[in-house]
Amino acid sequence: AQTVTQSQPEMSVQEAETVTLSCTYDTSESNYYLFWYKQPPSRQMILVIRQEAYKQQNATENRFSVNFQKAAKSFSLKISDSQLGDTAMYFCAFMTDSWGKFQFGAGTQVVVTP
Amino acid sequence: GAGVSQTPSNKVTEKGKYVELRCDPISGHTALYWYRQSLGQGPEFLIYFQGTGAADDSGLPNDRFFAVRPEGSVSTLKIQRTERGDSAVYLCASSPTGLSQETQYFGPGTRLLVL
What we know:
Chain A is mainly β. Chain A contains no helices and twelve strands.
């Protein structure tokens, strides 16, 4: 069975600063997918970024980037130039290479302050 | 096109009652997922439909929970004899075919409160 651990319940960051969210996972699979989803108070889960385990290059999407360390089973998210609209709950998620069933972490609440 | 929609947005019921939660996936998406998100937790998988059939219902907590997708589009999650512990946000997601590399699109969820 796969597990996903997010050890930071809440992170606070000032506008324009950088914050890094940690995520570790446990699996015996050799190929899989990792995701970061954002959930604002509206409850809508929004995909932030995804990483295929077979790709060594870290994924980036504008101000969002990941540090994927496959051997360490670590998948951290860096938010650069934080904006007030980034305030949300962030979930790390794991998916096997078979079909699209997510295993989510418990989430990290990010609060961006002016 | 329209995204995934869920109705109702909020549902309050009394312990022991029956409830139905509806999910309208993105048109043409054959894969549909239900998740349950308890307060302060990440979503937990309940059931996955591929077309009209439940391909994986291993996440349903007990036989009070049942879901259908009779025509391969709209899905209904049914909860019998509701208990206070069923209170949670129920999320629905869809994807074009169910392959891992596809993006799953989530609805806004139904917040269920059992009194």
